[in-house]
# Entry
Amino acid sequence: MQESPYHIHIAPPARWNPVNLAELWNYRELLYSFTWRDVKIRYKQTALGFLWAVIQPLFMMLIFTVFFGRLAKIPSDGIPYPLFVLAALLPWTLFAEGITRSTSGMITNAHIMTKVYFPRMIMPLAGILSPLVDFVFSFLVLLVFMAYFGFVPTMNIIFLPLFILLALATSLGIGLWLSALNVKYRDFQYTIPFMIQLGLFASPVVYPASLVPETYRFLYGLNPMAGVIEGFRWALLGTEVPGAMILVSAAVVLVLLVSGAFYFRRMEQYYADVV
Amino acid sequence: MGSDNITISVRGLGKKYAIGGPREKYLTFRDAIVSSVKAPVRRLSSREPPQEFWALKDISFNVEQGEVVGIIGRNGAGKSTLLKILSRITTPTEGTVDLYGRVGSLLEVGTGFHPELTGRENIFLSGSILGMKRSEIDAKLDDIVKFSEIEKFLDTPAKRYSSGMYVRLAFAVAAHLDPEILLVDEVLAVGDAAFQKKCLGKMGEVAKEGRTVLFVSHNMTMISSLCRKGILLNEGNLQFEGPVEDAINTYLNSDQIGSGEIVFRDRLPGDENAVLRSVRIVGPDGKPTVNVEINQSFCIEMEYELHRDGLRVYPNLHVKDSYGQYVFVTADSEMDSTSMKKLKTGRYCSRCVIPGNFLNSGTYYIGFALGSVFPLAIHSFLPDLLFITIHDPIVGIPTRLEGYSGPVPGSVRPLLKWELVG
# Structure
């Protein structure tokens, strides 16, 4: 038999397949193309373009500050409430947009995925990466607010990329699960807005994690976004070190990622026959 | 496996689809919960098993490097399923495939095109979806743009393109794919005739470059001009594998390509005034047929029913060649006048005689239209409904030079009167 650098063997699918990382790496340009496309189309189709990336978190910050900060007087670890909320809304939006886009991407791109082969995981990956561009814009706004309130980032800011990575990993882990489930059970996409809403209040966005009693704090870390958000505040605003909570969150994300990847790989075998 | 030149090796390939049953297409989460609750009960009550359907069964063949193989068979024979498995869009139920080389598949023209993006942006997007590297697209950009003939509109959003421009650009990207194995579905069925010929030329080049090509088409002319080898599928089975002419002949002579007649049943095409009942191509023996010899005449008939008195019907036929280009439209000229007879309610049959030594050899698509005039109305128009293959037996044909067996170009090959006048 001929030796070729490109040998493809096609056989009936095994039940469980590991992720082929080498193959994903080979398709990195395609991942870039899809991410770039999503960003480009998003900004082309809307009149305000990238301003949306800024307006959304700004308005949420405003509403939360008025109702939760001023009226309900929720504590904010000594940080000015607008800044306290904005620092949480950034990773939260990154996460929420990521799972929304990665899940819907499997359906809206069905016409491509039933005509060309590429590792299916490229789609949810592009879905979690494209909100990063919005994130960069809104991060600039956060910097402006920090300057306004006279906050100088501490040295902890060098850990910020780690928390961004953790937010993306959470988004991917859940996004893989949901996009695989959504292919088969189409009603999952309708539950996502609902779950995001629940998640927003189950995570320390409008209140500090310090409201949760110390003994339950690490349990709270089971919500991986709790660790991410507290990590963001620590790195940017110098609040209390989240410590154990982060470790619990990271462990949960790892479990979500690995199980999500396996489940996704299993479902993708039937993708073309089901969609 | 004897030859070490094998590029595609398919062994015992099968693909099963479940129609109905618990693993059916449409599912909501509730259905899944309900069905898992019911599962133990279902095992007790012996319900009918889910229906299974083998789109492909026990397919084995090898393709050597540089071979251009045509896959033929009627709709539903499994051609597309085979191509989808080879291009890894879907997985087989049984059997294996080994592909040795870079694979490019072209199951559709314009995969990944987005109307909001400009022509240039679409070239990069579609190119990378089809498997090209960015550097590769950069290098070929000028060729692609030139091939597509849309230079001036390169930075215009694709949504402002005409459909012709869209297809040209899409095909230009596809035509510059550079894989060692190319899997092509019927993608040339779009675009204008001149561009189709250009694409055919490009495909021919691809074949000459020693690349392996698997090509699915209904177009026998295209298959026989591009391919050396043919694979005939019939209801998911491999019916024939061998020289392309033999494959085409087996296909044309089997009864799987339709009988040359369509009798409409439940829903008759038409409106409240007139409907079509049946259409057929009648051969020299008076029976419906799908192929005749080039020097024989044949008839095209359409049977219709009028539901209103006083219609001046205008039945007409639309004949296209295998490139989709119109050869002619014909209608009953005696019916096209104000003095023409108004018909009463009832059934009628119109017949058109196509003379021998008129159409060229090849496949022609016949569309049927039923209209009426004064006032003008189109009751029914069914393009490309039947097809007929004209055979050239080569020997004893007056429109061909005795002893010459090569192709005679043209959509028609009429026998015309010639005189030596000086």
Observations:
- The longest strand of chain B covers residues 377-391.
